[in-house]
Amino acid sequence: MDSVRILMVRDLLSFNVLLILIFASTSVNAGPVYANTEWTDSHATFNDGNNAQGTMGGACGYGNISSRGYGLETTALSSTLFNSGLTCGACFEIKCKVENSTWCFPNAGSIKVTATDLCPANPAMPTNNGGWCNPPRTHFDLSYQMFTRLAKAEGAIIPVQFRRVPCVKVGGIRFTMNGNPWFNLVLVSNVAGAGNVVNLQMKSSETNWFWMTARQISGQYWELNQNLMGQNISFRVTLGNGKVMIANNVVPANWNFQQTFESDINF
Ligand SMILES: *[C@@H]1O[C@H](CO)[C@@H](O)[C@H](O)[C@H]1NC(C)=O
Ligand SMILES: *[C@@H]1O[C@H](CO)[C@@H](O)[C@H](O)[C@H]1NC(C)=O
Ligand SMILES: *[C@@H]1O[C@H](CO)[C@@H](O)[C@H](O)[C@H]1NC(C)=O
């Protein structure tokens, strides 16, 4: 009798636990746990020389990557890795293949960088001589500062190994409101975890809190044709590894264009 009752209590308990787990994993933070990828062979070059020009612009749309918190720890990706901008914000660990190049600093260890730009293909050049970023090659065009942590600049191109790693960011996910009342253009930045947003949904009080899917315009710019002026806005962010987070009421009703709002959550 007692053991039956205990069993029932236990079952009830585990049932409750199950319910809570199911609820937690379908509402927020669904998807697989982040896992580093395998080390993979590739190559790296550097761009822009020893100045800060490389911190402006970039195909991911982050603008001034220095003020957006990416610093100089950035890279451009060949189109194979860039995946039409859906890899923007992803983080990579890169090490020089010391055994294959005398340009590598033997004790440099590895660097970690965030993808902020595209390294365009150069079809006029062969893939093994100048056309480093041509498909199907994987390639990293690093900031000068990051390249020279791994190898001598004279090396110009170095053999490397890379793997995806979780992004570590300070603070919450940031949403910058651009565009105009008929075309909201939202830039999503400072994303931790897998780092790369692959789907963005928005909802507001006046749209009855119905999730509307934004369209990727370029890089990490997402467009929604819906007038959301004067309304609270929430975001549902999906990353490349399937993880989902909801940032509720991040944008207050009195928002304006050009403003950036930081949520209190991150991956
Ligand atoms: C980019 O942001 C940094 C840090 O806020 C600032 O010092 C720098 O002047 C900015 N660069 C440009 C070109 O606006
Ligand atoms: C890189 O180094 C490894 C280990 O010494 C060697 O087996 C391999 O053939 C080298 N690859 C190239 C492209 O030189
Ligand atoms: C809008 O957001 C504020 C907090 O920023 C909250 O107090 C308010 O209830 C929200 N309004 C609606 C209609 O959800």
TrEMBL record:
InterPro entries in the cross-refs: Expan_Lol_pI, Expansin, Expansin/allergen_DPBB_dom, Expansin_CBD, Expansin_CBD_sf, RlpA-like_DPBB, RlpA-like_sf
Highest taxon listed in the record's lineage: Eukaryota
PROSITE patterns tied to this protein: EXPANSIN_CBD, EXPANSIN_EG45
Main location per the UniProt record: secreted
SUPFAM superfamilies with a match to the protein in the record: Barwin-like endoglucanases, PHL pollen allergen
All residue ranges annotated as the Expansin-like EG45 domain in the record: 57-172
Topological type in the membrane: Peripheral membrane protein
Protein name as it appears in the record: Expansin
